[in-house]
Amino acid sequence: MNVTNPSSLSGLRILSQNLRKSQIAQLALLNSEELNEYQIVCLQEPYINVWNNNTTSHANWEVIYLTERKRKPKDKYCSVILVKKSLASDLWKEIELEGSMDVTAIKVETDEEVITILNVYNDCTNDDSLKTIEEFSREE
């Protein structure tokens, strides 16, 4: 896929990985050669730095945090999306979702295709993520 200006999203590669909050697992993933094959990475339970409440990333990736984190910066969150910086920034945008600390979303769009990507961490102690997805589905 020509990530700078694709005419089709058919070559878009997406990786989804639960890191179980492990800094070692996250650093290993971010520095792996395999990651070069992907344009979008959906992380569940990423490592979170306790000093600034940010996740660890790499210079080649744009981190998309969930909407609720912006309103509640000290709360725990379990979902982020990494978008490779070589993917043209006019092809994708963050989708604002309210009500969950566990759902992050982006929309990737060309002239011919639209893909909505929801990165969901399903917390077994509540159904906030399901409510957020249901609300989003009604609006779409």
Structure in a nutshell:
With 140 residues, the protein is α+β, with helices and mostly antiparallel strands.
Give structural notes:
This protein has 140 residues and is of the alpha+beta class. Helix content is 18%, strand content 27%. It has a four-stranded mixed beta sheet. The protein has a three-stranded antiparallel beta sheet with strand order 5-6-7, covered by helices on one side. The longest helix is centred in the C-terminal third of the chain and has 12 residues, at 128-139. The mean pLDDT is 89.
How large is the share of residues in beta strands? 25-35%
Low-confidence stretches: none
Mean pLDDT: 89
CA-CA gap between termini: 27 Å
- What topology, given as strand order, has the largest sheet? 1-2-4-3
Helix content: 10-25%
Total count of helical runs of at least 4 residues:
3
Structural category is: alpha+beta
Shape: globular
C-alpha-based Rg, rounded: 15 Å
- How many DSSP-defined strands? 7
Instruction: Give the SSE string.
Output: EHEEHEEEEH
Q: Report the biggest beta sheet as strand number plus sense, adding barrel if it closes.
A: 4 strands, mixed
